[in-house]
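Hey team,

Filing this mostly as a record. A colleague (T.K.) asked me to run one chain through the structure pipeline before their review meeting, and I want the input and output archived in the tracker in case anyone asks later how it was produced. No errors, nothing strange. Just documentation.

Input sequence:
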Amino acid sequence: MTGLGLVALAGAIVWMLADAGDVSAQVKRGRRFSTKSDCTECHPKSDFTGAQAHEPFKKGECLTCHKPHGLVGVLRLTEDGAALCATCHDQQALGLTRRVIHDPAARGKCTTCHNPHQGEGKALLTKPEKELCADCHGQDEFNREYKHPPLEQGCFTCHDVHGSENDHLLRRPGSELCADCHDLTAKSFADAHAGYPVDKTDCGRCHTPHSSSQAGLMTQSIHAPVAAGECAGCHNPPTAASPFGLAAGESELCVTCHDASDAGDDEHPPVATGECATCHDPHGSGQAALLVKPSRELCIQCHDDVGKQLIMASKHAPAGEDCLQCHSGHGSVKTHLVKKAGNELCAGCHEAVMSSLAQAYPHAAVTGGECVDCHVPHGSAFAKLTRTDRLDLCAECHADANGWLAGKSVHPPAKIGQCNECHEPHAASRAGLLKNDRNELCGACHPATVQAAAHVHPPFADKNCDVCHLPHASSQPDLLTDTLAVVCGQCHEGIQTDSQAKTASSHRPVAEGKCTACHQPHQAGQEHLLLDRADLLCLSCHEDIKTTLASGVGHPPAAEGNCLDCHAAHHSQWTALLTEDVPAICLTCHDGTSKEFTDRHLGLTGDRIDCRKCHDPHGGSEKSLMLSGEHEPFLSGDCSLCHPAAGGKEGGQ
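Output structure:
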């Protein structure tokens, strides 16, 4: 580029930047471009509601926040999230550098509360203040019978909106904030608190800041002496030098009203050491039993291993909600502080499981063990809170499961440890804890196998899949109990025993033990469970015969597909699987004693001839089915040239 060109380019960039705030400057006119003059002609201001407009929006300076180009439906911002807002709004002035940050602000989600175009009031809120806060903080906390008057004035009366140096985003520390409305040093105030100087204490120890079902905004759970104004039951008198000092040791004070645990040396450690305040607030709490925090949050402060389990894929619902549903805070460590022993505790919720044990086949692991033998009580990486993968879990008792994966064929549910696909884990009405009858169970995954057909294999019809198949794994294909030949031979014994010395020929699939080369193992539309019509099935292997039949004249039994008129399906004592030897088999259809027959065969009767020497048994180029490559004297009909007359001693030889 020339020097003059660079100067022109620089000038153009400066001009574009100078006009960046003017929306119309970015809209090119012309047939291929927008004919609108600014953004508001496509995005009218009437689409945006609220009493107050964002200053850039009010001035029509859309490019202060938006890039002018982008995908249809997506107006890209010039900066991401809070970084965009921070270009105009000082973070320190908003309180975003303070110790406690409002969660949406901490995550940079300004538009959770603020509308970027128009909103309610100066802060451009998406909703009126109290409605907006209730979206995240719910309504229950604010709608009890007795309400704190500032609540009616709005949340911002007591709370900072973005950040604060105080807990709960309070504008000032506890009692300092309360002093805005209450004269904490007045005698009447002290009298209302049993004469104690409470001006420097945390009001939230006894009072709830929003609303309460108890008069005086007392916390939902209040210690009885506090509710009765009997502070001196635990503290020094209000006139003492240290009025809030305890009148006795912590544990000694508590047992004056509360019975000591009888767990002995196995007590929950805070109980054993008398540190009641580790878990309980001595004055008041929003939690039941004066707990200082919700039970789950409180417990995992010490039991961090349980906390880690509760974020796993499978979580026990009570553990995630309230530890005290199953545990007592003052019980024995030996029994894990559980409220009831063993399976009795689980039975409280899992009634259906316990009632199922009355079925004919309960799982021995359930009746003879405890739930925690298979399940963990809090959380697990495995479904149904199992201690480990189901296959490994089941293998702890069913030792043969360890060898399943080494099989040549493994049932897919067993392979991936989904034993419960077929078995009930606790009890069943069927042997083997099966969920359903065998064929129905198998059919759930193998629907094509159980479709109705004209001919059904008896074991399959009787729902005895395990006559042929193993349920988990096998050293044979298709989960067979043994080799295919042995499996079939269990019932079809004759087919196997025919392979004795008297057998001259065997069908190759039979000899190789490949019964399913011709037969369906379960059910079929053809008789004898054949894969197809007998003739089509035979011709699928005997392609030479198929070619002969297609190109010439077929021997009627072969042409008509009646292969089994001449051949046995499995074994024969004659060659070629013939049902009888030649010529006897031929003479069942052909009259070998007729004059017509003997005239054509040197005067020989059929019982003296091997038909195969001259004829193809399946087909030929002519009706006579003569073999190709015929001898010249034979073609001219001069058989006597080689053969003596039929009546002679050598006749027919």
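Quick notes for T.K.: Residues 3-18 form the longest helix (16 residues). Residues 1-35, 647-653 have pLDDT under 50 and may be disordered.
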